[in-house]
Amino acid sequence: MAASKKFKNKSRCTHPFCQECIAKYIQVKVQDDNTAKIECTGLDCKHDLDPFSCKPIIPSSVFSKWCDVLFEDYVLGFERIYCPNRNCMALVVNESERNGTLKKAQCPSCKQWFCFQCKLKWHAGHRCEESGNLRDPNDIMFGQLLETMNWTRWPWLWPLC
What is its EC number (predicted)? Predict the structure, then answer.
């Protein structure tokens, strides 16, 4: 087989497969199976195929779909919600830690702060259970002041009503 026809998987592995066969293999894995991580077909090879190494040998529609499937696979590994701002509704992903607890988050699209736990507008100084009851703008401003000044809320000084 000519060296120009041999498939090269970036610097991960090189096997004597024709590029056309690898391209068909990728197409089936992506379009029929919705597979994100496609393993090399080399005997006992444990490497995944590199999408950018494969891009020149596969149709652009297959490459685009593969990128979409890879993105979905990546995002599904993280906690995610939609921005609570009715005018935005962008997907927000908690990339801080896998299965980590994120409380305060900022939408990358509209820049609004919100609570990742209760999925409401940020409620500084108030617990999630209380945030749904906040209607008075003074309560909201007081909560923001608590946060800005790093004040601690003592339950016996500020009773729950």
Answer: 2.3.2.31
